[in-house]
Amino acid sequence: MRLHPAVPLLLPHKAQHDIQVLSFNVPKNSQVFVNVWSMGRDPKYWKKPLEFLPERFIKSSVDYKDRDFEFIPFGARRRICLGMPLAIRMVNLMLASIIQPFNWKLPKGMTPENLDMEEQFGVTLRKAIPLVAVPNVEKK
Ligand code: HEM
Fold first, then answer.
1. pLDDT in the model for residue 90
2. Cβ-proximal residues to 102 (8 Å cutoff; 6+ apart), any chain
3. Key word Iron present in the record (predicted)?
4. Which of 58, 68, 111, 135 is 20 to 30 A away from residue 47, measured at CA?
5. How far is the CA of 60 from the centre of ligand 1 (A)?
6. Which atom of ligand 1 is nearest to the CA of 11?
7. Mind listing the pLDDT tens digit for each residue in 29-66?
8. Cα 121 to middle of ligand 1, angstroms
9. With 70 as the cut, is the pLDDT of residue 1 above it?
10. Ligand 1 pocket: which residues have CB below 6 Å?
């Protein structure tokens, strides 16, 4: 959700009136895109921003629920994702239900280090080259 956010530019927002955000003047009716993809990789806020280190969140106070604006994979404030409470439960459940029953491995010659994580940009973000993984059921 930080390195590869599902909705990289959030949904388009429109300024209802002239407003100044930090040093930026945003005229009424401007269409505003919030680049959460780039915010999640900003070295100003993240140590080793391009590394996948999920443990960075273990003792961190950074919250995804509309409080810490360096990490808003569900957006924020009035137009925050309505499905967020469902999504945060479902993501864990879906991941657990594919990880638990199988032993997964990468195809021959492929290692986690040489996985191509390039993205295909769109309203939603997807892997440019789909992940190939081989499920294996342990024989008892
Ligand atoms: C991991 C899963 C999900 C992610 C990362 C996600 C992310 C987002 C993001 C970034 C937005 C745009 C927020 C903005 O522009 O400020 C959004 C909007 C929305 N999402 Fe999700 N979403 C997820 C799952 C869901 C689910 C499961 C539902 C419904 C059951 C849902 C319903 C909505 C709706 C209705 C909006 C529009 C809210 C509005 O414009 O007022 N989302 N979501």
1. 96
2. 135, 136, 137
3. yes
4. 111
5. 24
6. 15
7. 999 999 999 999 999 999 999 999 999 999 999 999 98
8. 17
9. yes
10. 6-7, 10-11, 73-75, 79-83, 86-87, 91
Give the CA distances from residue 69 to residues 38, 45, 77, in Å, rounded to whole numbers and listed in that order.
12, 10, 11
Provide mean pLDDT across the span 77-104.
93
Give pLDDT, residue 137. Answer: 79
Measured from the Cβ of residue 40, the count of other Cβ atoms closer than 10 Å reads 20
| 5-34 pLDDT, tens digit each | 999 999 999 999 999 999 999 999 999 999
CB burial of 27-37 (b: ≥16 within 10 Å; e: otherwise) equals eeeeeeebebb
Q: What's the rounded Cα separation, in Å, for the pair 101 and 76?
A: 35
Query: Measured from the CA of 77, which atom of ligand 1 is nearest?
Result: 16
Ligand 1 centroid to Cα of residue 94, in Å, is 17
DSSP 8-state class, residue 112? G
In angstroms, the CA 60 to CA 58 distance is 6
CA of 79 to the centre of ligand 1 (A): 9
Task: Determine which residue's CA is closest to atom 32 belonging to ligand 1.
Answer: 83
